[in-house]
Write a structure and sequence with these properties.
Largest sheet: 6 strands, mixed
Structural class: alpha/beta
CATH architecture of the largest domain: 3-Layer(aba) Sandwich
Number of helices: 8
Number of strands: 10
Radius of gyration: 23 Å
CATH class of the largest domain: Alpha Beta
Order of helices and strands: HEHEEHEEHHEHEEEHEH
Oligomer: single chain
Number of domains: 2
CATH topology of the largest domain: Rossmann fold
Length: 295
């Protein structure tokens, strides 16, 4: 037991050191510039000048002093960041050196430390076909460490996925506008309407993690496959060129459909692979978004 605890601590510490360095070297400056303040805070009153918005007149001060005064507002820069991570059974899949859930924990760590450096609150929601665990947003480096630990070593209650239900749950817990990172392989359907609903109130960013073997099956003869969410088993002849072609077409169609869903919902979308570093695509996303916001 003590040995296992030391192993867990060592792995979490390794991720912390790696992702903190990435934040310092790549993401810190970009992060600050890609998210605008979530609202406006009242800061002071001043005398009314011709051209001021009459809706900002402070009628109490105006009545008391005998001439018009308007309210001044400052942008609220503190963000609430919610990282929603898919912990369903398909997250255990990985044919290179890390599983999808391990990649998810590192990305969540980068985002959480970036948020912390910018004095933002960060929270975690782990989901399958329902909310498995929810950690409300807070500002603390220890809290970020807990987020990493929870994602890596959480014992899931269900292997299935329900993104529609998850999006509804996010809307329920986030009463104020928030930046929501949805990390999943998006092996689900029927969630388009809820995606649009959530993105109208919040700033939703979808991060898809996939493994290369999910998009193309190699020619290795008869193989028994097991669905990691339903545990259904089937024997397939991977040497059949017709099967491999149809499978590739199905995966390509699903990917194209996913891009269309996010595009129509005006949701930013980042596509990552377990076979490649997530640094470049994540950095590119930050850079492109920064440029768009400045326009």
């Amino acid at each position: 037991m003590e040995k296992e605890k030391k192993f867990i601590f060592k792995k979490i510490k390794k991720i912390e050191i790696k992702t903190r360095k990435l934040v310092e070297d790549y993401f810190s400056g970009k992060y600050k510039s890609i998210f605008k303040g979530t609202g406006m805070n009242f800061s002071d009153v001043r005398e009314y000048y011709p051209g001021d918005d009459v809706r900002n007149i402070d009628w109490n001060v105006t009545a008391r002093l005998g001439h018009p005064f308007v309210k001044e507002f400052s942008e609220e820069h503190e963000q609430t960041i919610l990282i929603a991570v898919d912990v369903s059974g398909s997250g255990d899949f990985g044919t290179v050196d890390r599983t999808k859930i391990e990649i998810a924990s590192e990305i969540a760590s980068v985002l959480a430390f970036s948020a912390l450096k910018n004095q933002d609150k960060v929270g975690l929601m782990m989901f399958s076909d329902g909310v498995e665990k929810y950690l409300p947003p807070k500002k603390s480096s220890q809290y970020v460490m807990r987020i990493i630990r929870e994602i890596l070593y959480y014992k899931r209650q269900s292997t299935k996925t329900n993104i529609t239900k998850t999006l509804k749950n996010i809307n329920d817990v986030c009463k104020k506008p928030a930046v929501v990172f949805l990390i999943s392989d998006f092996i689900d359907d029927g969630y388009e309407k809820q995606l649009r609903t959530l993105n109208r109130k919040h700033d939703l960013i979808a991060i898809k993690i996939q493994d290369p073997k999910e998009s193309e099956i190699p020619d290795v003869g008869f193989v028994e496959f097991e669905d990691s969410e339903t545990f259904e088993r089937v024997i397939i002849n991977t040497s059949d060129p017709t099967f491999r072609k149809k499978y590739k077409e199905m995966i390509d169609d699903r990917e194209e459909n996913l891009k269309n869903i996010f595009g129509k919902s005006n949701v930013d979308y980042v596509n990552l692979s377990t076979a490649e570093s997530y640094i470049k695509p994540l950095y590119t996303f930050f850079k492109v978004r920064e440029k768009r916001i400045r326009q």
